[in-house]
Write a structure and sequence with these properties.
The protein is an alpha+beta fold and 206 residues long. The protein has helices at residues 21-30, 52-55, 94-103, 110-117, 173-186, 197-205, and strands at residues 10-12, 14-19, 39-48, 62-68, 71-80, 83-90, 124-138, 149-156, 162-169.
Length: 206
Amino acid sequence: MNNNSITPSEKENEAKNLLTSEEFEKLKKYFGISKENFSKQTNQYFIDKGNKILTTLPAGTTLRVREKSGKKELQFKLPTDDGTDEYHYDMNNEEVYNKLVISGFLPDGKVSEKLLSLGIEGPYLYKGQVHTHRAETKATSLNTWEGVTICLDESYYPNGSKDFEIEIESGSMKMSNTVLRDILNMFNIPRRVAKNKVTRFLESIS
């Protein structure tokens, strides 16, 4: 199967930076974000039997089920030179979801097709989950930030640790990186390149 013949469900252009709790609170205040603006999402992570996802594909490649607002979605995230390609599958059918968690079998669809095209085969092993409280706001501070989404995350890991992060999403990696740089400079926040969440999760269970 041709790798390029499977169209991604979504293209992500994200720029991220880890924050201290004090920086996190400053940004919440600046963007007018309160406790009520945060919603919980849970990422459940999986690896393939040969561990090829983590060892042969670009760093940050992730197979997960995201549960948010009572709905589940299977997501395969594949970093590229200009962002991240995402492949999705609706997992709200409990039988299909249980078949993955218990037996390690993916449903037929874009996710399984893309994995097979990359030489990745199941069964897939459930490794654990991360809980994240996220708030999102549309940037309105500067005209140059138009169309940009700013996300603040507070994430909790299996070993009891937690971290804080800002994530910028836009129509291009150039724009996301520019806005992130602007915000960090405004608040004198050091550039801290954030490892992707799946790496932080795996470190938390090692």
